[in-house]
Amino acid sequence: MDARLDYSSNPVMAKLVKHLVSISASKVVHDSALPVTTQELVSLRVSQINGCAACIDMHTKDAAHAGETSVRLNLVAAWREATVFTDAERAAFELAEQGTRIADAAGGVTDEVWANAAKHYDEDQLAALVGVIALMNTWNRLNVITRQPATGDYQPGQWG
């Protein structure tokens, strides 16, 4: 598959990507109290839902680099049936799914899902979680619309 747009050669896209990378690579979310493994697992789940192969490649590798096991990584797509995730991680996955599938659920994220996430994460962690979900959806949409391929050559930490 060939990309429809080359991010580096198009001046508008290059500027947009530069700003998104600066947000994504910032330490605000990464250094928050939201566990890095949760950040990576949620990024992976959002990317799976959106079918973003480049981001799936990236966040699978970043999660493994952060200490995730292959068993847990292989079961993210089936988190509801898997017994390897904590209640907090399940709440994060559910929030990520509803936050990603906004058009599929009238009203977006339900109060019940938000309340469940709030049982496991404090306000700063929730803010970081919402940030991860929103940024991943942005990256996924850019990559899917422009058909960015997964080349498999991503190295953990490559983008910051």
TrEMBL record:
Residues 27-97 form the Carboxymuconolactone decarboxylase-like domain. It comes from the Bacteria. One of its GO terms (molecular function) is peroxiredoxin activity. This is Carboxymuconolactone decarboxylase family protein.
